[in-house]
Design a protein that fits this description.
42% helix; globular; 17% strand; homodimer; eight-stranded parallel β-barrel; alpha/beta; binds nickel (II) ion
Chain lengths: 210, 210
């Protein structure tokens, strides 16, 4: 299930941010550092390569008792028997995803407005992620950063866990949680960190503060 | 179900080959011309756009009594409740796809060797397509053309309908059927034709000859 409570650090994989290093080793380190959820995000690779990466990550996430959530590809999530799926506003509509994956699996939806968040809740979302908060180099196709105000509005409007995403670092993570998020979703701050375990631990410490 | 018998003309959509023209109108014309199956292939667009195209095509294919088969995205096929899925050697493995889509839906697999075709048969394929036969501009990432010999070997080795694909035109379609195929899969020859209905009808005529 999706982690309960606050102080959640949700780590999203990214081949580019990993550079020459092994994404599997980095995720392993993030789990040691206390990551509460892992998202398998692997754009622009064939489904079979994404499945191979997922098959390498699942034993690690299962051993850690942490959900592995697949970005965009609902079919890859089913093929892997992963714990959930995350979709954005250009992906398969969340209500269709919920029908495909059944009631038990985690369903995350990227939202930027209260309306999108309320729709996600009606569609059966387990959580929403709100962003791009601060501007991120990992998703160059995203729009301009929206800041923390929509996050606060969304956290008040829907009865779902809300994660902040987009340009989050140890320096600004506390502001995200104070704005109403149960935690932070990060790519570069962990995957691109010189020491991913220490980076995750530092984010966990900050996110757990109120 | 997958069309039985010989003389099958299987038309694969391609936004680029359609150019400025409506892909929906072109598919409609191909169905009037006698196309026996339509594959929704829509690379490099978000899943939601692929679903929108599929939702526009399904009423046409259903009215024609012709299956709509979705390329690569098993989840899009499920979201659309399409008639089947087609996967290549880099996509989700066919046995996993069969598990996800259940026993009834059509499952097509791209193969280039007898071994791949036998594996597809074991994995639950409904049909295989063999290519690239003659070299095609529609799939620039494909390897060199394999010619008709593997098609004949595969048609003898597996008990599945075999389609030829790759650079097929009215001029060479007869050779593909004579080599052992139940029909031809085409992109440019129909989608890029000045008159898609006439182009499909001409292919049907040639493919029906033995
Ligand atoms: Ni009509």
């Amino acid at each position: 299930p999706f982690p309960s409570g606050r102080g959640i650090v949700y780590v999203i994989t990214d081949r580019r941010a990993a550079g020459e290093r092994s994404l599997i080793d980095i995720v392993h380190a993030a789990l040691r550092g206390g990551a509460n959820a892992i998202q398998l995000r692997d754009k622009d690779v064939p489904a079979r390569a994404m499945i191979a990466l997922g098959e390498a990550l699942l034993p690690l996430t299962r051993a850690a008792g942490v959900p592995l959530i697949v970005n965009d590809r609902v079919d890859v999530a089913l093929a892997l028997d992963a714990d959930g799926v995350h979709v954005g506003q250009d992906d398969i509509p969340a209500d269709m995803v919920r029908r495909i994956i059944g009631p038990a699996r985690i369903l995350g939806v990227s939202v930027a407005t209260v309306e999108q968040a309320q729709q996600a809740a009606r569609d059966g979302a387990t959580y929403v992620s709100v962003g791009d908060l601060f501007g991120t180099p990992s998703k160059p196709d995203a729009g301009p950063p929206i800041g923390l105000t929509p996050l606060t509005e969304i956290a008040r409007a829907v009865d779902l866990p809300v994660l902040g995403i987009g340009g989050i670092t140890v320096a600004n993570a506390a502001s995200v949680v104070r704005a109403g998020a149960v935690g932070v979703a990060v790519i570069s701050a962990v995957i691109g960190a010189p020491d991913p375990e220490a980076a995750t631990r530092a984010l966990c410490d900050v996110a757990a503060q109120r």
